[in-house]
């Protein structure tokens, strides 16, 4: 039996044991896991240092290094996330609808687990714990395959979780880590249709595209965020400045950070110099602008076609000028990755049209794109942000990790 086959078989068996757990027991175990993670902070940080040092040797950018690095405060945040999931309402067993049909059959549709979830993700080690806690609360087993950069951190986190599960008398294989980080084994996971019910990739465009092309397991596409902010001609420019600065600089390595700025030509000559001066006081940003905007900036570079479609995950931002709302909507829809888009405007009609006509999972009016997040939306920890339209869209909380089943009870009815 191959490595992935073994993990898959283990996960299938473990998922069947989870179906028997009630909500109170799942919550109790999640709180035990939270305590174990907190108790093992020193061990987790020690392993994370190994990853950080290796990443620095490999010349990783400071922004991406921030995604990888853990500290005591971040561990506390991870632990709090597990506790919050324990406090959330359990969707398993919820009745979606119930009725008696014309044949007298009592039909009830309930939420049930997906079964076995696989997740392939990149540098952020907190994803291991978030994904486990959400999968566990929804009675799913999960197989995690993290990136090479975070292998020691992920191994430490999953080891602590598995020990806590075993101590609680549970099958520890409800969570497993793929410790062989070769591309060949990752591709085997993508083909594991006999064991895995759904595969969730979380990372950059290259990872997402690879999984979409090579996976035989059903895929929920997440993560890539070429997020736009359109500053309309009626925008409050002070508000627009604050929103753009927050969306671009607060944490540029995440998928809901703004990568692209679209500006109405009527306010560009006033707004762009104001933004440039203000944003440089927070953190220097390299603007890559079209020819019209380039002439207004004090210090910017000419944008290429590729720039307008790029998720930078860095202090870089593309800029394009437009002459109308229609042109802005067309531009955003041309380059969107269907994640999060925003308009800054005082015009209610423009706001409504932008929200209706822009094709994205989250569309904002007068707010930063940085709010697209499971916790902020009241869903608890998220397993990812779906940018597709099938099954789930936007931040994926507990309900997104469930399917439904019809329960039918009769009294001897047969179909004539």
TrEMBL record:
One GO BP annotation of this record: L-proline biosynthetic process
UniProt function note: Catalyzes the NADPH-dependent reduction of L-glutamate 5-phosphate into L-glutamate 5-semialdehyde and phosphate. The product spontaneously undergoes cyclization to form 1-pyrroline-5-carboxylate.
Enzyme class of the recorded protein, top EC level: oxidoreductase
Cellular compartment(s): Cytoplasm
Enzyme Commission number, as recorded: 1.2.1.41
Organism per entry: Streptococcus lutetiensis 033
Protein name: Gamma-glutamyl phosphate reductase
Tree of life domain: Bacteria
Organism taxonomic ancestry: Bacteria, Bacillati, Bacillota, Bacilli, Lactobacillales
Main location: cytoplasm
InterPro entries: Ald_DH/histidinol_DH, Ald_DH_C, Ald_DH_N, Aldehyde_DH_dom, Glu-5-SA_DH, GPR_dom
Secretion signal, residue range per the UniProt entry: none
NCBIfam families in the record: PRK00197.1, proA
Keyword terms, alphabetized: Amino-acid biosynthesis, Cytoplasm, NADP, Oxidoreductase, Proline biosynthesis
One GO CC term on file: cytoplasm
GO molecular function, one term: glutamate-5-semialdehyde dehydrogenase activity
CDD domains linked: ALDH_F18-19_ProA-GPR
Keyword Transmembrane helix: no
Functional pathway: Amino-acid biosynthesis; L-proline biosynthesis; L-glutamate 5-semialdehyde from L-glutamate: step 2/2
Start and end residues of each Aldehyde dehydrogenase domain: 5-282, 316-378
Family: Belongs to the gamma-glutamyl phosphate reductase family.
Catalysis performed (reactions): L-glutamate 5-semialdehyde + phosphate + NADP(+) = L-glutamyl 5-phosphate + NADPH + H(+)
